[in-house]
């Protein structure tokens, strides 16, 4: 009798294929990967983000070698986020008035040139504190131009049902980069030099530019409007919409508090933990791992607990980290705290981003997202300058304690004066 049974390998392949189909079914966590454009852009963006985090590690550590000023060290972080505050609204209007793919290509090309120039000048040993800040500022402007167009293009990559999962997966890619990039950056700087980190970032832009050149989204041509009236319409909508006003205030407060940790970490590693480039990279990697861990569960937490509790949990994670970090005496002791801070980053910012997306009409989506980013990252830039100044005035532990107090007060006051919008409050219909 003929044996018609399938070999074990066929059973395994069928089981894996069935499991993959379930995971990518509409509405599931990996559903956006069913879309070819999303897969390609997500993968290329992951490599680009890794390059950016490698560059950030190199720039932050190079500044600790160029100066003893906590303010200048903190301004490396501020120079990345400040352009989003200053130019983000204009970038949002550009994203709504021009082809978003071409806007992203222009931004990526500008960052490629700037990163290549920084690499060359670093190898020539002519980079000082202010020249370094100038180049990080230029890269920040590129990010500010790219971000609204990229975030608004997600709807063109996936369907309506998969949009929340696509946002979460993009956040996960960013945080995967934060887990791999910092450790890789610290390794490159310790084994070679800062120029190697900048060179890797330069190369990382190429894959995303290539993918964007090949992508041809099926989207209606944008209706062009004069820039200033276009910006005014976006600002008017955001500040007359009560749900969006609440989200903007929450974003600013969260960003301001987070800057206490993000901007002062290089100084903490150098002065308190007595670590080097690799130790700094490992702490950032632990932060990224915590972010990935939180991204796996944040959607389920929002459905079960609601957005207010999830943001409260994220804020509390920072309170714990900022209060305990001054007691750490080694990089190893600080690694769990970085992990906890990473979970707080995702719980807060992903929740706020999704809430903003679902309350922004398609025709002004880029402007709404850019205004949210401008306010949130403006809070980070202002916080970086203030917490760095406080550290110079008193000490780094004092500044970290101040940031913890800010988060603690925010957890009490903000739910009373600016509660998170209810599930259907201000929500727009997505096509």
Verbal overview:
The structure is a single chain. The protein is mainly α and 431 residues long. The chain has one domain (33-213, 226-417): Growth Hormone, Chain: A, CATH 1.20.1250.20. Helix content is 81%, strand content 0%. It contains 15 helices and no strands. It is globular, with a radius of gyration of 22 Å. Mean pLDDT is 82; it is low at 15-20.
Q: What tags apply to this protein structure?
A:
single chain; 431 residues; mainly alpha; Growth Hormone, Chain: A; 0% strand; globular
Short summary of the structure?
This protein has helices spanning 8-23, 36-66, 70-97, 100-123, 129-152, 154-157, 163-191, 194-214, 227-240, 242-272, 277-305, 307-324, 331-357, 365-393, 396-417.
Shape: globular
Question: What is the strand tally?
Answer: 0
CATH architecture: Up-down Bundle
Relative strand content: under 5%
Number of helices: 15
CATH topology: Growth Hormone, Chain: A
Largest sheet: none
User: Mean pLDDT, as a whole number?
Assistant: 82
Q: Fraction of residues in helices?
A: over 70%
What would you give as the CATH superfamily?
A: MFS general substrate transporter like domains
The overall number of domains is 1
Order of helices and strands: HHHHHHHHHHHHHHH
Question: CATH first level: which class?
Answer: Mainly Alpha
Helix/strand class: mainly alpha
Spatial extent as radius of gyration: 22 Å
Calculate the terminal CA-CA distance, rounded to whole Å.
Answer: 57 Å
Secondary structure layout:
Elements: H1 8-23, H2 36-66, H3 70-97, H4 100-123, H5 129-152, H6 154-157, H7 163-191, H8 194-214, H9 227-240, H10 242-272, H11 277-305, H12 307-324, H13 331-357, H14 365-393, H15 396-417
